[in-house]
Amino acid sequence: MMPVWKGLLALVLAAGGQTLLSRYFPAAGKMVDFYTILVLYYAVSRRKVAVMCMGTTAGLVEDLLTHTVLGMNAFKKTLVGYVMGTLGSFFMLSQPLPRFGVLFLATVLEALTEAGLVLVLGQHVVLPSAGDLIRLGMGNGLVGIFIYWVVSKLE
Amino acid sequence: MAMNRSFPERRPFFLLILILASQLILMSHQVRTHRGNTLLEDSLLNVSSPLVKGASGGVGFLAGFWQGYVDLRGARRENLALKANMEKLEEVGRVGEEFRRENLRLRDLLELQRSLEIPSLAAEVMSLGVSSQARTALINRGSKDGVKRDMPVISRKGVVGRVIAVGRGIAKIQLLIDPNSGVAGVFQRTRGQGMVVGVGDRGCRMDYVSDLEDVAVGDVVVTSGLDEIYPKGVTVGVVFSVAEGDQLTKNIFIRPEVDFRHLEEVLVLLTNEEAAGHADLSP
Fold first, then answer.
1. Residue B5 located in a structural domain
2. Is the confidence metric ipTM above 0.95 for this complex?
3. How many CB pairs under 8 A join A and B?
4. pTM of this prediction?
């Protein structure tokens, strides 16, 4: 079982990386979401409760740092993490390609969840363009596979 | 099957629902609607409004019911008071009507009194005596008022009778329909004369009218004055039956103009010297 401090460290690293990337490389910041990658790592490798805790915490941190509605990212990351964790229990996700698929699918699901959530909250829905979504999904998939490989090497 | 899963197995799912619900509440607390409220406030308002409306309606219904009950009690009390008032007013109305009718009668009597050349004294009938042998009445005038025996008594309709007994403040009248009464009468149309005698409830009979006399139903009979009791020209009654008699006379029946069953005020005709000392002629 992964210690809590490691999870917190991973969250700090993800938040720092995302912030720096968005500030100094905005275009690159739109193509990768380190929070999603972190939550999905938990989804494919941890129990559901841990996934939900990480999804909520990471989402809230992201909300705080990006000044969006507090709970928005937490909601979608918790939900997507739970769904992906449930899917992961049915499939073998230890190989890079399935993991890429899971990361891509999670990215799309997050976008859809956000759109639905915004709709429920009675706000104007602005769906991301398909190109942006594909780019983000592919970026998450590729970066995620790389990070998971690094992490597996560290462990 | 999912239905058979135990609670510990489903705990992550419940936890997910709890977390998502908390996050939704957190978000709805920040998002403002077009009305300016937060979504949480709006949601709470929307959820609570039916309850509030229901409670308000229930309270309103109970309040209305109670108010209705109170009003009903008040209305009942008011109804009873109004009924009592109405009964009083009806009584007042009845008394007023009685006064009005009495006033009319007395006015008629006063007019009659003024029209007469003979002085008269108004009197109130106190009681009517009815037996098989006599038809009498008591009036509230007597010797102290100047009333004397054999004084004629009339009403605005005609002959009532004559005084047959006098007390200090009371007098007894023999009515026209008394079987022992007798009034000298004359047919107003033909001037044929006769004697009018009472026959009780059937009215009067006119005796001593010649078979040759022209008498018809409807003829009016008035006093002739020949009996020296009743003044001349006072109405006695109207002929309602004429038949051939057995001794060269006619059997003539007369219906008196005076309604003896409803006799209330009368005039006692006085001689001049009796009237001089009695200015008050009211009953």
1. no
2. no
3. 49
4. 0.46
What pLDDT shows up at residue A89? 78
Q: Which residues of B touch A59 (CB under 8 A)?
A: 23
Q: Which of B11, B27, B39 sits opposite A72 (nearest CB)?
A: B27
Render pLDDT for A48-106 as a digit per residue (tens, 0 to 9). 889 999 999 999 999 888 887 888 899 999 999 999 988 887 877 778 888 899 999 99
Give me the number of domains chain B comprises. 2
Asked whether residue B244 falls in the same domain as residue B271, the answer is yes
User: Is B127 found in the same domain as B100?
Assistant: no
Instruction: Pick left, alpha or beta for residue B197 (phi over 0 → left; psi -120 to 50 → alpha; otherwise beta).
Output: beta
The residues near B195 (Cβ < 8 Å, ≥ 6 apart) are B182, B183, B184, B185, B206, B207, B208
pLDDT in the model for residue B282: 43
The CATH number linked to A137 is 1.10.1760
Over range B145-169, report the average pLDDT: 91
Decide: A60 and A15 in contact? Cβ < 8 Å: no
* Residue A128: per-residue pLDDT: 79
Please indicate, yes or no, whether residues B260 and B209 belong to a single structural domain of this protein.
yes
Report the amino acid identity of residue B133.
Answer: Q
Give the whole-angstrom CA distance, residue A86 versus residue A103: 14
Give the length of chain B.
Answer: 283
Q: Does A67 touch chain B (CB under 8 A)?
A: no
Q: Cβ contacts (< 8 Å) between A69 and chain B: which residues?
A: 27, 30-31
Report if residue B12 sits inside a domain: no
CA distance A124 to chain B (A): 11
The range of the structural domain enclosing residue B207 comes to 120-276
Q: Give pLDDT, residue A69.
A: 80
Q: Which of A23-37, B101-115, B190-204 has the lowest mean pLDDT?
A: B101-115
Q: Which residues of A are less than 8 Å from B24 in CB distance?
A: 71, 75, 120
> Which chain B residue has its CA at the smallest distance from A73's CA?
B23
The residues near B85 (Cβ < 8 Å, ≥ 6 apart) are: none
Is B205 inside a domain boundary? yes
Closest partner residue to B15 (CB to CB) among A49, A70, A79 is A49
Residue B5: pLDDT over 70: no
Average pLDDT, chain A: 88
Inside any domain, residue B213:
yes
Per the structure, the count of domains in chain A is 1
Q: Which domain, by its residues, includes A29?
A: 4-154
Chain A CB contacts of B39 under 8 Å are 121-122
Q: From the CA of B59, how many Å to the nearest CA of chain A?
A: 34
Q: Which residues of B touch A57 (CB under 8 A)?
A: none
Number of H helices, E strands in chain B: 3, 12
Domain match, B177 and B220 both: yes
**CATH code at position B272:** 2.40.10.340
